[in-house]
Amino acid sequence: MPEPARKVELPIAPPDGLPASRGARFDRLDALRGAAMLWMTGFHACFDLNLQGLIGRQNFYQDPFWTVQRTLILSLFLACAGAGQAVAQRQGVPWPCFWRRWSQVLLCALAVSLGSWWMFGPRWISFGVLHALALMTLLARLLATQKPAWLLALALACLLLPLGWSHVLFDSRWTDWFGLATRKPPTEDYVPLLPWFGVLLGGLLAMGALLRRRPAWVGGALPRALQPLALLGRWSLTYYMLHQPVLLGLIGAWVAWRG
To answer: Measured between alpha carbons, how far is 35 from 239 in angstroms, rounded to an integer?
Structure first.
């Protein structure tokens, strides 16, 4: 097991406005994550309505209106995850705390795989967003202390490599998670390591730069109207696991009520 990360002591009342205690929340980051969750909910609601034929026949797999939205939502969510790892590094969050949260993400990812196998059969989710988060946050935790220039080079390599090279070796369920497959696998959610780890590293680098140069932008107060978004962002994993069953249940009840 890796050695525990060295604790970074912050002053009791930091002049830069950052939370001083280990594990303290950054409301602005939580609100940004909450906004991503709301956008995702709207997207999934449309997807579920489409399954029932209630909004016409939309092609969520090829229509740019939907595919671009998915890319933006996922990018925002992963960038927030990377930013969270930069905050954890700054606050000196120890490995036991990391492992506790990481195990929750991993268990939820396994639950998604089992549930999708029951719902979608051969299109079950073997490496979706939660699987990606489990792997990428662990890698980001291990790499967070590296020099920013090295992390930037790695992020660019992650983003660019899939654009120029692929191989049939990565076309199976056991290897497609790496992101160098020659074709998109038949699955309902697919978030491979490449290029998406580059996005998460981008969030880590951006937050690290803000913490060093513009900490008040991160630790400043949040308008009261946006506080519900921050609350949602703090419970993002629980919300993620519950929102689709709730949406499907509500839509199914509506369809049944209409006869």
So the answer is: 12
Q: Which of 30-39, 134-143, 150-159, 217-226 has the lowest mean pLDDT?
A: 217-226
- Cα–Cα distances (Å) from 71 to 20, 67, 124, 150, in that order, read 34, 6, 20, 25
For residue 64, what is the enclosing H or E element? helix 64-91
Q: For 22-48, b where at least 16 C-beta lie within 10 A, e where not — what string? A: beeebbbbbbbbbbbbbebbebebbbb
Query: How far is the C-alpha of 154 from the C-alpha of 207, rounded, in Å?
Result: 17
- Torsions phi, psi for 86 (to 5 deg): -65, -40
Q: What is the pLDDT of residue 53?
A: 87
Q: What is the pLDDT of residues 147-198, one digit of tens each?
A: 999 999 999 999 999 999 999 999 999 999 999 999 999 999 999 999 999 9
Domains of the chain by residue range: 93-217
- Rounded to whole angstroms, what are the CA distances from 259 to 54, 59, 252? 14, 26, 11
Residue the block writes with tokens 């525990």: 4
Q: What percent of the chain has pLDDT over 90?
A: 81
- Helix then strand count (H, E) for the chain reads 9, 0
